[in-house]
């Protein structure tokens, strides 16, 4: 799952033409490759056209915009975390870009990246310990049932409760990365997007 963010009225470089391909004509592998390369080039030249993050990167980015730009209303927060087509007008998009650029310039975003990376390392160590316990539990279930690779939902009741408890102790902080470069790409997109839609 990911978040596709489309510019509503993006600034397009003069002479830049959006590539097309006729999928019904069964294009060759070479034609497909050329098409995707042309799309990449077009999007590099026209940064306000399209921005994408997978769900893991987007969650941190959207929350950063919410927490530190003041440009996401409380009532709209959930919309930023759904693929519902929520729209942001051009004025707000430019204000987001300005705020993010200022946060990057003063080093705030770099500090946030450092903080997230440190939290991810702590979570990775914690989760490695949890995974060891889950592995031992899996081996216990195999000995008890004689079945390999049994899904936790099918564990005997006592072991299922143990698994639920262990899984609840897992930290998800190792799953949500954050980087200055991603924030800068989003700021550039916002500035050139003419407003945008989150899908």
Strand content: 5-15%
User: What's the SSE pattern?
Assistant: EHEHEHHHHE
Q: If you average the pLDDT, what whole number results?
A: 96
Largest sheet: 4 strands, antiparallel
Cα gyration radius (Å) = 22 Å
Secondary structure: helix percent:
55-70%
- Oligomeric state as shown: single chain
End-to-end CA span? 11 Å
Helix-strand makeup class: alpha+beta
Structure explained in plain terms:
This protein is an alpha+beta fold. It has helices at residues 29-45, 55-69, 90-105, 108-145, 157-168, 180-193; strands at residues 2-7, 50-54, 86-88, 196-198. The chain is built from 6 helices and 4 strands. The longest helix has 38 residues, at 108-145. It is extended, with a radius of gyration of 22 Å.
């Amino acid at each position: 799952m990911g978040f596709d963010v489309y510019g509503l009225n993006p600034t397009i470089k003069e002479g830049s033409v959006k590539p097309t391909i006729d999928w019904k004509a069964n294009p060759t592998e070479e034609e497909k490759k050329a098409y995707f390369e042309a799309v990449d080039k077009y999007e590099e030249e026209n940064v306000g056209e399209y921005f994408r993050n997978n769900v893991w990167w987007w969650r941190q980015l959207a929350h950063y915009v919410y927490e530190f730009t003041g440009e996401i209303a409380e009532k709209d927060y959930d919309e930023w975390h759904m693929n519902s087509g929520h729209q942001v007008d051009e004025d707000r998009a430019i204000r987001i870009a300005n705020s993010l650029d200022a946060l990057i310039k003063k080093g705030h975003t770099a500090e946030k990246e450092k903080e997230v990376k440190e939290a991810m390392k702590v979570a990775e160590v914690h989760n490695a310990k949890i995974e060891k316990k889950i592995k031992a539990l899996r081996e216990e279930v195999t000995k008890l049932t004689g079945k390999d690779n049994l899904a936790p939902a099918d564990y005997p009741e006592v072991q299922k409760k143990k698994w639920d408890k262990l899984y609840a102790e897992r930290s998800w902080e190792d799953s949500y990365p954050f980087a200055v470069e991603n924030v800068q790409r989003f700021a550039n997109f916002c500035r050139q997007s003419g407003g945008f839609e989150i899908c």
